[in-house]
Predict the 3D structure of the following.
Amino acid sequence: MPDPLAAAVRHHQDGRVKEAEALYRQVLAEQPDNPEALHLLGVLLLQRGEARAAPNSHAQLSPGYPRDLPGVDGTMARLWRGANPRTAGAGALR
């Protein structure tokens, strides 16, 4: 049986975002805490301009997600800013 996460990544890389999203969500239905699927679904939603939809998945990463996944921290920051436009600059002022 093919690995749905690997297939999702291939679809995502090839620009087939609907197929990729469906597979990321399939993985998450079976493994709700899968950090790679959560991250990549967040990336996909961010790329589509749906940052407000993505934090629900990325919020699950914050307690103990693996910090060695490439790009996770930056993606989480962009998603947070996209979902919280009024407070996006507040962190820079601290």
Observations:
- Helices lie at 4-13, 17-30, 35-47, 55-58, 72-83, 90-93.
- Residues 4-84 form a domain with the Serine Threonine Protein Phosphatase 5, Tetratricopeptide repeat fold (CATH 1.25.40.10).
